Amino acid sequence: MRRRLLGLCLLAFPRRVRRTEGPVLLDLADDLVEHGASPVLECLSLVRSGVAGRLGVSGVPVRPALDRLALPLAGFLLAAFVLRWLAFLPPGEAWPGWSLALAVGGSLAALIGLMLRRRLPALLAVLPLAACFVDAWRDLYSNGGSRWVTASVNVLPALAPTAAIVVAAALAVRAGPPATRAAAWTVAGAAALVLVALLIRGSTAPGTSVLAAGGALALALIGAGLRDRSARLSAALAIVMAGPAFAWIATGWLGVADWMLYVGLYGGWTALALAALALARHAAR
Amino acid sequence: MAEIREATYFVLAALIDGPLHGYAIVQSVVDLSDGSVRLSAGTLYGALTRLAVDGLVEDDGEEVVSGRRRRRHRLTDDGRAKLLAEARRLRASAAVVESRLGATAPAVSS
To answer: Does the distance separating the beta carbons of B45 and A21 come in below 8 Å?
Structure first.
């Protein structure tokens, strides 16, 4: 069963590589799992390596790039969900609902896990990610509708990419000294973001916050990326984070039909993913 | 000269004493790094592929051990030179910091 699973993950590699390297790679992964390595992480590592080879981005410094983004994005995610709790609930309601409560709790746990460099609590970032998809499903198919949607902003394009990057960062966490100081700055920054957003509540929404935060982060990292390969990849990820929100808001401004919003969203997402891929390829050199 | 990442540095170091297969490299890297670097199969494959493209390691044949196919890899002369250069660079960087810390030893040791 384990070997079959690892063999399945090998499909991520091009056929040419599978033919020449497949059996050796499979035996190596199997050996490592037999001697205590996590089968999940070995599978993910094979898939990552295979996909990176197919895309021509092998050698991209993924771990340092995620390390660089992990705390700021976890802090931003927490701020965005707290902001939604504080600012966008119907008047008179104190309880935000289970999905938003889990999203706030998961974001907080992820921030603490990343600060302490513990993978298990950090992986609770899957809660806000799952909550984004649950909310989107309710928005589209449930009679009650979404409790999260406000104005023309949809939480799925706005926050799911950020949550996905935090989950990826949580998977890459390695044991080490706690990043207490960095976490303190992150919490301070997140609190300031919530405060400012509440002060200008009339013109604020998570989508525009994501756009502003992602854009600022990408610009800063592209500047740093002129000297540093991992920063170039961090910038690519920040663009991916802000891209869907940008596409969603831009198509909303144009006042187009609903189906065109989705075309704009997924088209914009694809275009920005390609741009990020080009940046990542640049980072691989 | 391009930077060498920590994992790559230890992969090259693992091959100093002679050719090793993938699993032995992973074990050796854990020992050499005092447990701080643990390579997965995909990561090791990526590192070895890049090192082979750069001419720093090369294949040294295959063998079957306990029914498992294992490919040995060995350090090239260029790989040895690169590793030596990186070790010297790290030593020089450490010396700068140590000498500066030495100048402020009372504050550091208290």
So the answer is: yes
Taking a C-beta distance cutoff of 8 angstroms, is the pair A12, A50 a contact?
Answer: yes
**Single-letter amino acid, residue A92:** G
Nearest to A192 by CA among A170, A166, A212, A220: A212
Which residues of chain A are within 8 Å of residue B59 when distances are taken between CB atoms? Answer: none
The total number of residues shown for chain B amounts to 110
Rounded-to-integer distance, Cα A272 and Cα A277, Å: 8
Residue with tokens 């995909």: B42
pLDDT 10s digits, A52-110? 888 777 767 777 888 888 888 888 888 888 877 777 666 666 777 788 888 899 999 99
Q: How far is CA A49 from the centre of its chain?
A: 19
DSSP, res B67: T
Partners of residue B62 on adjacent β-strands: B71
Task: Give the whole-angstrom CA distance, residue A211 versus residue A217.
Answer: 10
Please answer yes or no on whether A32 and B23 come within 8 Å at the CB atom.
Answer: yes
Give the end-to-end CA distance of chain A in Å, rounded to a whole number: 38
Point out which residues pair with B71 in neighbouring strands: B62
